[in-house]
Amino acid sequence: MTKNVLICGVGGQGTVLAAKVLSQAALSKGKQVLSAETIGMAQRGGSVTSHVRIGKNAFSPLIPAGRADIIIAFEAAEAVRNISFLKKGGTVVVNDKIVQPTTASILGKSFDAQEMLDYLEAIKAKVICVDAEKISAKLGSSKAVNMILLGAASRTGLVSKEEILSALKILVKPEFLSLNQKAVEEGARADNAFIVDKCKKPC
Fold first, then answer.
1. What Cα–Cα distance (Å) separates residue 164 from each residue in 57, 108, 152?
2. What is the distance between the terminal CA atoms of the chain, rounded to a whole angstrom?
3. pTM to 2 decimals?
4. Which residues pair with 72 in a beta bridge?
5. Predicted confidence (pLDDT) per residue in 124-162, tens digit
6. CB under 8 Å to 122, separation ≥6 — which residues?
7. How far is CA 184 from CA 90, 153, 154, 167, 177, in A?
8. In what order do the strands lie in the sheet with 126-130?
9. pLDDT tens by residue, 57-89
10. What's the rounded Cα separation, in Å, for the pair 18 and 194?
11. H or E segment at 70?
């Protein structure tokens, strides 16, 4: 059976690396993997999406609308923006924070994270809500959000925590390996108070 995973965020959050780690984890199990990125204006904080398709029945790297089993969203607005990809009964693993778009800031407007999370739950998706900011603070780095979310996604059975950790050894430079491994461990912890199945505050 093919598993379709859409990873989304904004430029600089590490979506492409997360997709590579997920792909490597699946390849290590001997599974066929197809992937593609839509980068756009990533260097200006624009949207970034990565499609990862795992299994022999995938014949294109792009996930059709309504076919994603899992959306891993590094910020809540991007989860909503890409929700049309999610299949009925699919899972959204989402960071409960918002990265305010530059255009919204210029206009004096702002996006509300809780409004976005309420919408995700209203459409009956299974939502795993992650307070990646607090976990990052515990780790002492704001650059670990991608691996925290990937660790949380391992709870779905997509790939195991151990497979992600093994993939990191192949793809990440030695000086950054320990931080990324700790981030995955924190995201995968079943007793982590900052990861819940309901996105009502406090998370």
1. 23, 41, 11
2. 33
3. 0.90
4. 7, 93
5. 789 999 999 999 999 999 889 999 999 999 999 989 999
6. none
7. 22, 10, 9, 11, 11
8. 33-38, 47-54, 3-10, 68-73, 86-95, 126-130, 195-196
9. 888 999 999 999 999 999 998 999 999 999 999
10. 20
11. strand 68-73
Instruction: Say which residues have a Cβ less than 8 Å from residue 162's Cβ, sequence separation at least 6.
Output: none
Contact 132, 72 (CB under 8 A): no
Residues 198 and 141: their CA atoms lie apart, in Å, by 26
Q: Tell the residue number behind the tokens 């492409």, with chain if given.
A: 16
Neighbours of 31 (CB within 10 A): 15
Please work out, in degrees rounded to the nearest 5, the angle formed at the alpha carbon of residue 165 by the alpha carbons of 12 and 98: 30
Dist. CA 22–CA 154, nearest whole Å: 10
Whose tokens are 């699919």? That residue is 90
Half-sphere exposure of 26 (CA within 13 A, CB side): 22
Two tokens, residue 99: 């990265």
